[in-house]
Amino acid sequence: MSTLLEIERLSAHFTTEEGRIKAVDEVSLRILQGETVCIVGESGCGKSVTAMSVMGLLQGAGVEIGGKIKFGDTDLLSLGKHHLRTIRGHEIAMIFQEPMSSLNPVLTIGEQMIEPMALHLKLSKKEARRRAVELIEQVGISRPGQIMNNYPHELSGGMLQRVMIAMAISCAPKLLIADEPTTALDVTIQAQILDMLRQIKAESNMAILLITHDLGVVAEMADYVVVMYAGKIVEEGEVTRLFESPKHPYTQGLLKSKPIMGQRQDELFSIPGQVPNLLELKPSCYFHDRCAHCMDVCRTKEPALGRVGDGQKAACWLYEEGERHG
Ligand code: SF4
Ligand code: MG
């Protein structure tokens, strides 16, 4: 499989009144065609910021983005707004936790689907409407004609997320970025939506970058997992290996907290302690305050992300030869 998206040393730093926040720091990752990569971590770990950078959604005063995001031969970070907009929604689509936030409350679902499809796919209104109905059926809604005439507030959260997915796949994107797409939904609906995403992916060879705090979702969906903590990747690897043999103490803690799909974020993490304040980070392993294996070196030097097994990497001094006892 060839590489679809390659993120090279991405950093996203924000200047705030209190100081500079390194929301994402030197993150590199690769997504192959048709692959599902999950980024997992607690809120504020930088997973959403990473996704938003890919979509070119982080702009404005005080935002400093560094590194490269290569989509095919194009560096998305060097594209102008217009060109980026053509790729966004067409080749790369995104769905969010709150579908309501990306829908227009005063237009019907049909109106919101038909216009952009007609435009992007160069279809007549009639053809776009027919295609929209097909897509709504494809995402498991039984009366598509009726849904087309509904306003967003008339639909349940699960229905809305299905509609969002229908919109996202309407231009047959090569990559779907899904940021906590099922977090707001109840467990049964969540499972149905994940099933549907898997099916769409299998039929279309679309790659998925899935952002989640939920290891149950990771287990269901991922080919490859990236674990983030305080803006950095602390571990990554192929999903079965990572679940069987997590190397980083943070990943081990996450897996021990035995999440059940559908649990709320605040119930999930039982690792003692708190995520460090991103304003006050000194060179160190950022997990050291919460780590049962912390050594002297962990408090003063940052561990690099290095190989810890077949196709698995971790950033932890436990695996650095010679530094083991600090
Ligand atoms: Fe724990 Fe040290 Fe490894 Fe950080 S580097 S996870 S503090 S052992
Ligand atoms: Mg988020």
What does this structure look like?
With 326 residues, the chain is an alpha/beta fold. It folds into two domains: 3-91 and 173-314, Rossmann fold, CATH 3.40.50; 104-171. Helices cover 33% and strands 24% of the residues. The protein contains twelve helices and twelve strands. It has helices spanning 47-54, 81-87, 109-121, 125-138, 144-148, 157-169, 187-204, 215-221, 239-244, 249-256, 265-268, 296-300, and strands at 3-16, 19-32, 36-40, 63-71, 74-75, 92-95, 175-179, 207-212, 224-229, 232-238, 306-309, 312-314. It has an eight-stranded mixed β-sheet, sandwiched between helices. A four-stranded antiparallel β-sheet has the order 2-1-4-5, covered by helices on one side. Strand 1 and strand 2 (19-32) form a beta hairpin. Helix 3 (109-121) crosses helix 4. The longest helix is centred in the middle third of the chain and has 18 residues, at 187-204. It starts with a strand and ends in a 12-residue tail after the last strand. Iron/sulfur cluster (SF4) binds next to loops. Iron/sulfur cluster is lined by residues 248-249, 285, 287-288, 291, 293-295, 298, 303, 316-318.
Write the layout of secondary structure elements.
Layout (H helix, E strand, L loop, with lengths): L2 E14 L2 E14 L3 E5 L6 H8 L8 E9 L2 E2 L5 H7 L4 E4 L13 H13 L3 H14 L5 H5 L8 H13 L5 E5 L7 H18 L2 E6 L2 H7 L2 E6 L2 E7 H6 L4 H8 L8 H4 L27 H5 L5 E4 L2 E3 L12
Parallel strand pairs: 3-8, 3-9, 6-7, 7-8
Antiparallel strand pairs: 1-2, 1-4, 4-5, 9-10, 10-12, 11-12
The chain binds iron/sulfur cluster (SF4) and magnesium ion.
Magnesium ion binds next to loops.
